[in-house]
Structure formats: structure tokens, C-alpha cells
């Protein structure tokens, strides 16, 4: 039996556990410092075994994944370095930052066990084991940061296990990881939070700000609902990178301000065109289940029965719909339905079907 110990079974640790549990030859052990949490892991069926004794959790483990907040990872790795672990055991983590933990692993010079940093590029604003999903990492990138001295067969063993996540593995240097992920994840979280707090201040004087906030505001601020402790740790750990990014952001905002001040319509238009062109090149389909899969947007008249009509047409053709979301629905005003599919083939057939039914669709 291959024993996998998950240290901290929350959104990410729990999703990893669900990807591995029940796979032939694998047993998953969930560790928590808190007995009621360990009981919950078992009750929810996310792990095979659970407990609060770290020694028992890691004893004989073939793989150990550190899945707590970023500030807990280095102390936990230091603790592991002084514990008897199975020779050849691979220790990894799922933390959103990599450089300081990888440096810590190098300093510790683990004896007979290996450390390979990891970071699945999928998640959600939700947290805790209740939010875990076995589909979370599907089609997402999963960064691994092996040390230069990590033997290839050790890397391959971890890669083999992580195949169960259905993610696409990518090797990256830890510092490069922190710079890139700082820009595409940490900076956007700061911006989303600052934006929500700015609007919350206006709302103190007039409740209409919150009431009128619609799709645009909600889309750009979803991640502002993320866990405060998880994000405090990420930002403090990647502080140097995020500080530089904030300087660039301030310059970007200043340029926008100047365009507006001078009434430079062409300049504003150019910025929107450039952003749209870059965004359209992004690999939209590489997403986990908690964000979206293959989406199609349909303009629908607001009359009863339209959802049923579309659902029956899909049912008749064996098209599997995984989610449906009504984005706008007001009397007499056309609404927008977002339909999500897990399979690209279902998505393509749905588009053909909808067009055939006379609906206007957008991808
Ligand atoms: N949320 C995301 O979208 C996301 C995505 C990729 C990676 N990550 C990273 O994954 C890790 C876990 O994040 P999450 O979103 O699953 O958070 P979570 O809050 O859902 O889970 C955190 C887990 O760590 C445990 N924990 C809390 N404090 C601890 C401590 N002091 N010592 C040991 N364990 C402790 C909690 O009991 C919980 O099981 C973080 O390092 C985060 O940076 C998060
Ligand atoms: O989709 C979300 O809610 C996320 O914030 C996921 C997200 C991100 O894309 O920024 C957050 C943190 C990670 O470490 C990886 C992924």
C-alpha cells in the first residue's frame, strides 16, 4: 500500500485527498491538530484514516503533502526533518509561494527523504474541507519546483501519483514561480480587496452602491471573498515581489488617470483593445470545476419555459450539461444564461443545437 499523508485537509488538501482516495494501492491519512477536524475528515469520507498525532500521520508514509497556510509550511518541514520518516519518502506541499520553502528545504538537507515544492494553479474563494472537490485540479496547471539535485526517478514518482489529479504538471524555478504567480494571482487579489473596500466606504453613505453592484463588479471581485489568513500569509511571504508589482500597478493607474484627464479617447480605446486581445489569447479552457469548464452564453427572452426547452433539447441529443446560471433576468428584458459543460464535444454540440433553435450564443 502507498500511504499518502495530507497535513491540513482544507480546500486544497481535501481536493488532493479526494483525487487519491480509493485509487488502487493508495491509502490516504488526514492530519489535523484539531480532533474535531480529524473526525470531520472521516465523516465526510475525504480520507481513509485521520488523526491528531503528527508522528502517526507521517510514519511509513510514502508521500507527505503539507497543505496548511503558507506560514505553517516551513515550521512543519523543520519538524519533519527531525522525525523518523520512511526512507525515500517524498515530501511536497501545495503552498501558493515557493521560494522561501524551497530555500528552507535546501537548508535542512533532508536525509534519505526528498522535498519537491508544488502548487496546483486552481482554487476558489471558498475554504475548508467542505469545499473540496475531486475535480478541482482537472485540466489546471500544477507547478512542481524540484531542486537541482532531485533525482529524475523521484520526480517521476511524484508525477505518477499526481496523475490522479488530472492536472498538467509544469516544472518551474521557485523564484520564477513567485514572480509570475505574484503577478497573475497575488496582485489581482490585492486589487480585488482594495476595490471592494473602496466601494464599501461609499456604501456607508448610500446603500445603493451594494444594491446596484451587478455582474462586472461581482466578476472582478469574487476573489475578494477568499480566506483572510491564507491570503495574509501569501502576501507576507511574497512581499518583495508584490511590492514591486504594486509600483507597476500604480504607474498603470496613473497613466489611465492622465488619459482621462486629457480626454484622450483614442488612448483609452487602445488600452481596452490591447487588453481584450491579450485576454482572448488566454487558455480559457484550462480551468478547474469550481471556476468554469466549457462555457457558452445564450441570450434568452425572459419567458417561462425557456430553460426547460433548452434542457430537453440537450437531453434528446444526449448532451451533458454540468451547470446552468441565469446571469440576468428581468421582466421584458432579454436575459443571459451561462451553460457549462465538462466535455468539449458536449460544448460544441450544444452550440450547434442552440444556433439551430435560433438562439444567439457567445463563447
Ligand atoms: N485557496 C486557493 O485557491 C489555493 C490554491 C492553491 C494553493 N493554495 C494554498 O493551499 C494551502 C491551503 O489553502 P486552502 O485554500 O486549502 O485553505 P483552507 O483554509 O481550506 O485549508 C487549510 C488547512 O490547513 C489547516 N491549518 C490551519 N492552520 C494550521 C496550522 N497552524 N498548522 C497546520 N495546519 C493548519 C486547516 O485546518 C485546514 O485544514 C495554502 O498554503 C494556500 O496558499 C490555495
Ligand atoms: O479561483 C480562485 O478563487 C483563486 O483565487 C485560485 C488561485 C488564483 O488563481 O489566484 C488562488 C491561489 C492559488 O494559489 C492558485 C489559484
Overview of the molecule:
This protein has 363 residues and is of the alpha/beta class. It has 3 domains: 2-172, 3-Layer(aba) Sandwich (Rossmann fold), CATH 3.40.50; 177-280, Orthogonal Bundle (6-phosphogluconate dehydrogenase C-terminal fold); 294-362, ACT domain (Alpha-Beta Plaits, 2-Layer Sandwich). It contains 14 helices and 12 strands. The strands form 2 sheets. The protein has an 8-stranded mixed sheet with strand order 3-2-1-4-5-6-7-8, with helices on both faces. A 4-stranded antiparallel sheet has the order 10-11-9-12, with helices on one face. The radius of gyration is 23 Å and the shape is globular. The structure holds nicotinamide-adenine-dinucleotide and prephenic acid (PRE). Prephenic acid binds next to loops. Pathway: Amino-acid biosynthesis; L-tyrosine biosynthesis; (4-hydroxyphenyl)pyruvate from prephenate (NAD(+) route): step 1/1. Its EC number is 1.3.1.12. It catalyses: prephenate + NAD(+) = 3-(4-hydroxyphenyl)pyruvate + CO2 + NADH. InterPro entries: 6-PGluconate_DH-like_C_sf, ACT-like_dom_sf, ACT_dom, NAD(P)-bd_dom_sf, PDH_C, PDH_N, Preph/Arog_dehydrog, Prephen_DH.
SSE blueprint:
Elements: E1 2-7, H1 11-20, E2 26-31, H2 35-43, E3 49-51, H3 54-58, E4 63-66, H4 70-81, E5 90-93, H5 99-108, E6 114-120, E7 141-145, H6 152-162, E8 168-171, H7 174-205, H8 208-212, H9 215-221, H10 228-237, H11 239-261, H12 265-280, E9 294-300, H13 306-316, E10 323-330, E11 333-341, H14 344-356, E12 360-362
Parallel strand pairs: 1-2, 1-4, 2-3, 4-5, 5-6, 7-8
Antiparallel strand pairs: 6-7, 9-11, 9-12, 10-11
The site of prephenic acid has 10 residues, from loops.
Amino acid at each position: 500500500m502507498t500511504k499518502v499523508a495530507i497535513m491540513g485537509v482544507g480546500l486544497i488538501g481535501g481536493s488532493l485527498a479526494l483525487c487519491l482516495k480509493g485509487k488502487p494501492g493508495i491509502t490516504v491519512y488526514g492530519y489535523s491538530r484539531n480532533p474535531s477536524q480529524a473526525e470531520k475528515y472521516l465523516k465526510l469520507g475525504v480520507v481513509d484514516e485521520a488523526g491528531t498525532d503528527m508522528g502517526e500521520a507521517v510514519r511509513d508514509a510514502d508521500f507527505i503533502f503539507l497543505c496548511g497556510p503558507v506560514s505553517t509550511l516551513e515550521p512543519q518541514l523543520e519538524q519533519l526533518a527531525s522525525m523518523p520518516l520512511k526512507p525515500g519518502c517524498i515530501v511536497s506541499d501545495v503552498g501558493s509561494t515557493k521560494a522561501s520553502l524551497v530555500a528552507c528545504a535546501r537548508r535542512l538537507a533532508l536525509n534519505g527523504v526528498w522535498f519537491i515544492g508544488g502548487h496546483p494553479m486552481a482554487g476558489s474563494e471558498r475554504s475548508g474541507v467542505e469545499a473540496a472537490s475531486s475535480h478541482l485540479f482537472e485540466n489546471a496547471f500544477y507547478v512542481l519546483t524540484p531542486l537541482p539535485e532531485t533525482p529524475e526517478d523521484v520526480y517521476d514518482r511524484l508525477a505518477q501519483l499526481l496523475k490522479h489529479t488530472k492536472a498538467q504538471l509544469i516544472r518551474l524555478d521557485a523564484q520564477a514561480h513567485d514572480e509570475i504567480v505574484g503577478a497573475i494571482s497575488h496582485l489581482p487579489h490585492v486589487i480585488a480587496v482594495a476595490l471592494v473596500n473602496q466601494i464599501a466606504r461609499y456604501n456607508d453613505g448610500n446603500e445603493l452602491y451594494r444594491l446596484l453592484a451587478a455582474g462586472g463588479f461581482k466578476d472582478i471581485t469574487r476573489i475578494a471573498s477568499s480566506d483572510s489568513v491564507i491570503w495574509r500569509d501569501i502576501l507576507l511571504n511574497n512581499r518583495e515581489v508584490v511590492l514591486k508589482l504594486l509600483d507597476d500597478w500604480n504607474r498603470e493607474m496613473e497613466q489611465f488617470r492622465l488619459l482621462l484627464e486629457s480626454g484622450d479617447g483614442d488612448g483609452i480605446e487602445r488600452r481596452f483593445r490591447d487588453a481584450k486581445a491579450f485576454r482572448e489569447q488566454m487558455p480559457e479552457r484550462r480551468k478547474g470545476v469550481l471556476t468554469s469548464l466549457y462555457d457558452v452564453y445564450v441570450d434568452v427572452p425572459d419567458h417561462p419555459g425557456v430553460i426547460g426547452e433548452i434542457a430537453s433539447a440537450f437531453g434528446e441529443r444526449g448532451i451533458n450539461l454540468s451547470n446552468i446560471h441565469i446571469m440576468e433576468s428581468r421582466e421584458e428584458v432579454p436575459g443571459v444564461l451561462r451553460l457549462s459543460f465538462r466535455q468539449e464535444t458536449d460544448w460544441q454540440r450544444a452550440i450547434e443545437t442552440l444556433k439551430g433553435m435560433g438562439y444567439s450564443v457567445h463563447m
